[in-house]
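Good day; I would like, with your permission, to put a structural problem before you. A protein sequence and the structure tokens that stand for its backbone fold form the material at issue. I would ask you to consider whether the tokens describe a fold that such a sequence might reasonably adopt. I set the record out below, with my sincere thanks for your time.
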Amino acid sequence: MAPKKLRIYAPDVTPRLEYTAGVIFDLILGISYEITTDRRKIRTGPAIIYSDERVRDQFVIRPSGLLSATGVTHPGPEVSRFDGMPLLYACSNGSIPFDLFSAVFWMLSRYEEYMPFASDVHERFQGSASLAYRGGFLRMPVVEIWSRYLADELVKRYPVLTIRHNEYRALVTVDVDQPFAYRSRGFLRSMGGLVKGLAGTGARPADRIRIMTGSKDDPYDSFDWIEEQLQAAGNEALFFFPTGDQGDYDHNPSYRDHDYGELIRRCDTLFGTGLHPSYRSAGRAKTLRMEAERYRTITGHHPERARQHWLLLRMPDTYRDYEEAGIRYDYTMGYNDEPGFRAGIARPYPFYDLMKEKITGLNLVPFQVMDGTLRQYMHLTPETAIGVIEELIVSTRKAGGLFVSIWHNTSLNEGNGWEGWRRVFLEMLAMQMA
């Protein structure tokens, strides 16, 4: 027997409502649904009235007005609590105590990031400035929690509804900002390093020469170890490689470098790769397209996946540039300074362009934690970092979502302050695959 369809009545069917309903019912809950402006379709079957109209004996969600508005016109919502669950857009005269649709849309669209905000020196929106952090729920996948709460309340009234069980998954991602410390640096940069070594301010010249000639391992080349651990754990993984020109914040080799190209192709074959757009490409669509073409010349295929270097994400400009460059999946949705659920969701979801009021073809794959966040921003010990990672894995597993972590080859070399962090990586692999 076919599952019962849920009908959602609203006086107006807006792009915001269609988008929000799609994420809740298609992506998370697996409930067949229809949005209608005809109240005659709402009879005895499962239904939600999303309206301020007077109704009797119906399941009602009272709208706050956010989903019928356009542009960025609403102030940020207040945070309240209901049985320990954080709420946005609270109300007292519906079947549930808040406008759940508006709360979900506000989180997914990153509405607050379109409003004026105080950025860091790299013009990034900081996790510590987010409503989720200030409201104490950044480490909770609230969109998942709200959706499951709605499902539970609907099933109480309409037991004929069936809810899908989502399987938890884990994905390890590695940003290869600088694959080698000394190899593939070019003649002039290598000679400069040798001069510094002779002056006593760099690596010892003999060690540098042995590394450059291949007789000694490069200290940043931890790829064999990473590959071995990922394959032993059976973990999904993606590697993100830059192909931009070198600069103050971009330290990758030339995209023409033979060893670098071999590394990219090897990771592409074993796990899968994506583009790591350069610092200088942020806000420069032409530069991004050039770097995407360089990636194609190395791998033989266009980059469908990308993550911004330094997590330089500006709404909606970054994502418009991605669409123009033919990138279909972004992996930047997370914070540099705080772990957690930036968009409140623990699974890939479509990007909604708030200024154009449309659902786009770009899919966002959020991450929950990054190695640099734990050590360099939060100054955690490896032992404390393991506890934070475990908390996020448990929350993601409970939601049946996708746990995504960011690592760097330079953080897994047991040097330069990263001593003890290989154990964190191994503990994470064991926890997320248990």
Q: What stands out?
A: DSSP finds 13 helices and 15 strands in the chain. The mean pLDDT is 93. The longest strand covers residues 169-175.
